[in-house]
């Protein structure tokens, strides 16, 4: 997949970056780290510049996020769960990925849209529960742009600074992803345990 991503970006430049980021937001298995870090590297080898890459990448993030937000406004969780079970394997999605995004939004509510843009997998899916909750669209757009801009800036600038060694950033983001997954999983276990304990306590009153 990495070779395909690189070929698309080399052939189409800014349009390639924009298109890949839109797709990455809808299909989480496509790694934004490769797109953005290589985009940063391309600014050292082509006429592309950091501001241009950041602009099209952030626009792509917003377009992809709005599509999923819209999906959330017309589907309930049960329907999304059924679709994920039926078609998720074709998109590289698992039901637990959707549940993580749902629980992340329940925990942080609107702040989850901003924070979620910097959490692997969740960053793509967080728009769905935001749409289901009918979050104010202007607030959704603002928080999505801000969160995406931070994530995109870190990766694009890193790719620019590392130059030929841009792939080094992928190693560190793998570590970051693993830590993020552990934190999310731990949080969900704690929330579930607290919820269960609360229900048991209320039944005994």
Describe the model.
The chain crosses the membrane at residues 12-30, 50-72, 140-163, 175-195. InterPro entries: DedA_domain (IPR051311), VTT_dom (IPR032816). It is found in: Cell membrane. This protein has 205 residues and is mostly helical. It has one domain (2-203). The chain is 82% helix and 0% strand. α1 (2-26) crosses α2 (32-42). The longest helix is centred in the last third of the chain and has 36 residues, at 168-203.
Briefly, what is this?
The protein is mainly alpha-helical and 205 residues long. Helix content is 82%, strand content 0%. The protein has one domain (2-203).
Work out the strand percent.
under 5%
Total domain modules: 1
> Would you tell me the structural class of the helices and strands?
mainly alpha
Gap between N and C termini: 56 Å
Multimer state? single chain
- Helix-strand topology string: HHHHHHHHHH
Rg calc:
18 Å
Q: Total helix count? A: 10
**Main β sheet profile:** none
Uncertain regions spanning at least 5 consecutive residues: none
How many E strands?
0
Q: Based on CA inertia axes, which overall geometry fits?
A: elongated
Mean pLDDT, all residues: 81
- Approximately how much helix is present in the residues? over 70%
InterPro entries: DedA_domain, VTT_dom
Organism: Acetobacterium wieringae
Pfam family, one: VTT_dom
Keywords: Cell membrane, Membrane, Transmembrane, Transmembrane helix
């Amino acid at each position: 997949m990495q070779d395909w991503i690189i070929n698309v970006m080399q052939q189409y430049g800014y349009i390639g970056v924009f298109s890949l980021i839109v797709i990455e937001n809808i299909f989480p298995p496509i790694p934004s780290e490769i797109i953005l870090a290589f985009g940063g590297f391309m600014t050292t080898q082509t006429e592309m510049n950091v501001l241009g890459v950041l602009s099209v990448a952030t626009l792509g993030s917003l377009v992809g996020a709005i599509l999923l937000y819209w999906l959330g406004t017309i589907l309930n969780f049960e329907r999304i769960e059924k679709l994920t079970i039926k078609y998720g394997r074709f998109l590289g999605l698992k039901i637990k990925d959707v549940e993580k995004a749902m629980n992340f939004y329940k925990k942080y509510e609107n702040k989850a849209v901003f924070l979620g843009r910097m959490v692997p997998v969740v960053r793509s899916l967080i728009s769905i529960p935001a749409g289901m909750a009918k979050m104010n669209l202007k607030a959704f757009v603002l928080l999505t742009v801000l969160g995406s801009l931070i994530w995109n800036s870190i990766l694009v600038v890193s790719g620019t600074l590392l130059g030929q060694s841009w792939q080094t950033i992928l190693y560190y983001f793998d570590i970051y992803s693993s830590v993020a997954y552990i934190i999310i999983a731990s949080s969900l276990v704690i929330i579930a345990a607290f919820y269960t304990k609360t229900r048991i306590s209320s039944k005994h009153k």
